[in-house]
Every structure is written in structure tokens, then in C-alpha cells.
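Worked example 3 (structure in, sequence out).
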């Protein structure tokens, strides 16, 4: 089984921004990135959302450029950049600049966006997001690998565009797909892209990763298999009992807030369906996820037993990560230590225990640079 690398998930939460001036929030998290680099984490990830309470990073490339200049070896990316909200040529050039400034440390996470209201508020067609994202990915790869770009598609046309600069990594940074549904898993596997997951219960993610690997094998790609990424909320304390005592009051996952919160109090709300995904809210995969969110908000046992969070002593956390790794065969584990409104000091205590006692339990050997696919 491939080496397991550890990443940190840092969305810069909207809740945190309510009590801290934005410039101080940014400074706090720049310091966080420097500290996790010193701990030996492989990578740092954030996320993009527009019109949402998920975080205060509406410009992930700008933020990651600051991270690049504050660090020296840790890899970095957004999981995801919401492709439909970007002009693909501009995004390709900006990420290439980031890759140059970081000396080749970018991980390019792509996705289509899931919440209908984010699109409505910008006057964009929610139903077009899949097509826009697929076309944008094609254009971005051209911009990264060609001196000139000619493209005539459904959404964009370029006539001898001259993209500058090209990325530091050759042929380009690793491309990830944040994949939940079958179409996204097919796109990732057939395109030979790395794949990431975060929201489903363990058994469903296991099935989805198995399906992804099956389609990848059937596509008969040459070269090594792409990487697999799992993100989970996590809390580490001195004992299992202490970890539960600290985490349980805050472990009402942000997912359970879909349909509520500040967004529900606006004129547009969550869009045409209170579950937030328009007509896709009734798709079987999304309905199952919605039910798991409800259960997670109501039941500690359900949350822990189904892997929607990992909580415990360092020994328990090591065991659970390794058990899940054997089951799902992921090779990047990304932990989010910010559980709801948990105080910053408690988050950092958990993170430091993770760095001091969990990471060293996994043998770390020199690994070749990430394969760009």
C-alpha cells in the first residue's frame, strides 16, 4: 500500500470571522500554515465557496499565494476551486503563477459546486455547472501545456490565446476532482485525475473509491494510479474520554446546517429546494447524504461509528486512520480540527497532539514528487 501522507484542512470559518477582524484572522491562519509545515504535514488545503457561510476565502488563489510566501516545503491547494465561477484562462494563469511562486507546490483541486443558491446570486445557471467545469478543465490543461490555445466550445472560445506563465511543475500541477456522484467519479477515473471525498459515511466512500478504481482500470491508463484523498473532522486529546468531552458539544457538523443558518434567512434562501441542490436534492446519492447529516447532528454514536468524525486519544486516532486506510485505500488523510465553534486554543491543542503523536506513528519515507495527471 502506498505511503500515507497527512494534510490539514483549513477553511477559515465564517463563525471565526464573526469574532475576529478579517486581517487578524488571516494572520492567525498564516501562522497555522507555518506551524503545520514544521510539524511535517505533507499539504495544506482550503476550500472555495461564494455567497456562503462555509468560510471567508472567496479568492483561494490569492490566499494560497500568501501561504506560498510564508512557507517553503508544504504543498498547497484548494479542494476545491469552483470552476464554474472562474474564467478558465484567467484561472489557469493565476494557478500557474502560484505554482511558480511556490516552486512547484500546487495541488489543483477542481469541482463543480453543489449549492444552487450560490449560482442564483451571481445570475448563473446551476444546471450548466457540470458542462462548464468539464470544458474549463480542458482549457486549463491546454493553457498549462501549449504555447497557444485555440478552442471553440459551448461556453468559451479562444483564438490563438497566449497563456503566460506556464506552471513550474511539468507537465502541470496534479489535478484533483472532488467527486461525490457517479458522473464526477467517471470523469475523474476516465480523465486519469486524482480523486477526493469528504462527506459520505465510510461504507459509501469505500464503494465510491472502489468504483473509481474499477473505471480507472477499465480505461487502461498508462503510468501509476492517481492518488486518493479523504478529509474528516478530527479531534485528538490525551484520552478517549477527554476527546469526547471536548469534541461532543461542537460536533454538529456544518453539513447539518444545510437548509438553515444565515442563508435560510435571506430572500433567496437555499434556492428552489431547502436541501440546497435544486432538482438534484432528490437524487438518491444526495438524499442518502442528507439523511446522514441529520443523523450526525443528532447522534454521537452514529457520527463516530460511520466515520463522519475521528475522535480519541492519539492511540485511538492512529488505529482508526489505519483501519479506514486499509478499507478505503486512501493515501492522503486530511484532518479538519475546527469543529463548529470550538475555541481556537482547543483546536490547536488537538492539532499539536496530531503532529506530535499521530504523524510519527506512520512510517514516513522519501516519496517522489506527486505525479501530475
Amino acid at each position: 500500500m502506498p505511503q500515507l501522507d497527512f494534510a490539514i484542512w483549513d477553511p477559515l470559518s465564517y463563525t471565526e470571522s464573526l469574532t475576529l477582524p478579517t486581517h487578524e484572522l488571516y494572520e492567525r491562519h498564516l501562522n497555522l500554515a507555518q506551524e503545520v509545515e514544521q510539524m511535517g504535514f505533507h499539504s495544506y488545503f482550503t476550500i472555495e465557496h461564494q455567497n456562503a457561510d462555509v468560510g471567508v476565502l472567496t479568492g483561494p488563489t490569492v490566499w494560497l499565494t500568501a501561504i506560498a510566501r510564508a512557507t517553503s516545503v508544504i504543498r498547497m491547494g484548494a479542494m476545491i476551486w469552483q470552476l464554474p465561477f472562474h474564467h478558465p484562462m484567467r484561472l489557469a494563469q493565476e494557478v500557474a503563477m502560484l505554482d511558480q511562486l511556490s516552486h512547484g507546490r500546487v495541488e489543483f483541486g477542481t469541482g463543480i459546486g453543489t449549492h444552487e443558491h450560490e449560482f442564483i446570486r451571481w445570475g448563473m445557471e446551476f444546471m450548466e455547472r457540470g458542462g462548464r467545469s468539464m470544458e474549463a478543465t480542458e482549457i486549463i490543461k491546454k493553457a498549462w501545456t501549449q504555447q497557444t490555445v485555440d478552442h471553440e466550445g459551448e461556453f468559451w472560445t479562444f483564438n490563438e490565446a497566449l497563456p503566460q506563465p506556464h506552471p513550474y511543475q511539468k507537465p502541470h500541477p496534479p489535478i484533483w476532482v472532488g467527486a461525490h456522484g457517479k458522473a464526477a467519479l467517471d470523469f475523474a477515473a476516465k480523465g486519469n485525475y486524482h480523486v477526493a471525498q469528504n462527506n459520505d459515511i465510510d461504507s459509501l466512500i469505500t464503494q465510491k473509491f472502489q468504483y473509481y478504481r474499477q473505471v480507472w482500470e477499465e480505461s487502461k491508463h498508462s503510468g501509476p494510479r492517481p492518488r486518493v484523498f479523504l478529509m474528516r473532522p478530527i479531534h485528538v486529546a490525551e484520552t478517549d474520554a477527554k476527546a469526547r468531552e471536548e469534541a461532543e458539544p461542537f460536533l454538529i457538523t456544518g453539513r447539518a446546517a444545510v437548509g438553515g443558518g444565515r442563508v435560510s434567512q435571506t430572500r433567496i434562501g437555499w434556492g428552489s429546494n431547502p436541501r440546497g441542490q435544486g432538482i438534484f436534492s432528490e437524487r438518491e446519492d444526495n438524499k442518502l447524504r442528507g439523511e446522514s447529516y441529520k443523523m450526525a447532528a443528532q447522534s454521537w454514536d452514529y457520527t463516530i461509528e460511520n466515520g463522519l468524525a475521528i475522535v480519541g486519544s492519539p492511540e485511538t486516532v492512529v488505529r482508526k486512520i489505519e483501519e479506514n486506510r486499509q478499507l478505503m485505500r486512501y493515501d492522503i488523510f486530511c484532518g479538519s480540527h475546527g469543529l463548529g465553534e470550538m475555541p481556537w486554543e482547543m483546536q490547536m491543542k488537538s492539532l499539536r497532539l496530531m503532529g506530535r503523536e499521530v504523524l510519527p506513528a506512520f512510517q514516513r519515507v522519501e516519496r517522489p514528487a506527486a505525479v501530475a495527471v
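Notes: The CA atoms of residues 53 and 261 lie 8 Å apart. The two ends are 20 Å apart (CA to CA).
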